[in-house]
Amino acid sequence: MPVNEVDLPECGVARFLLLFDGPWATLIVRELLHGPRRFGELREALPGISAHTLTNRLRLFESRGIVIRRAYAEVPPRVVYELTDLGRQLQPVLDAMCAWGEKAPVSAFVPQEPKAARS
């Protein structure tokens, strides 16, 4: 991760990938686009994600202004995560990803044997 603005890549896609470099990051945002969620709700909605990975991603998003962590003074304690305005701006990005994923042929997602080069 860049430590200052000088280290940021100029390319917008490269900048995006600084935060969304794996599958879980985008899927966490997808879930939060449905509304505020508790940690356990996110874990349940994302089978296979470890508590460690979810915690780290939420902390990263919080430190970058994409997610707000709201802790309520209740017994038992309740913590809710929700997207900020900046985070909600990711809606059209995820919509475009979803549209592409739904329209792409199955062959785009299944390993194929390389076709022989024509001579």
TrEMBL record:
The keyword Plastid does not apply. It comes from the Bacteria. GO terms for molecular function: DNA binding. The keyword Transmembrane does not apply. InterPro entries: ArsR-like_HTH, HTH_HxlR, WH-like_DNA-bd_sf, WH_DNA-bd_sf. This is Transcriptional regulator, HxlR family. Residues 11-109 form the HTH hxlR-type domain. Keywords: DNA-binding, Transcription, Transcription regulation. It holds the Pfam family HxlR. It comes from Actinomyces massiliensis F0489.
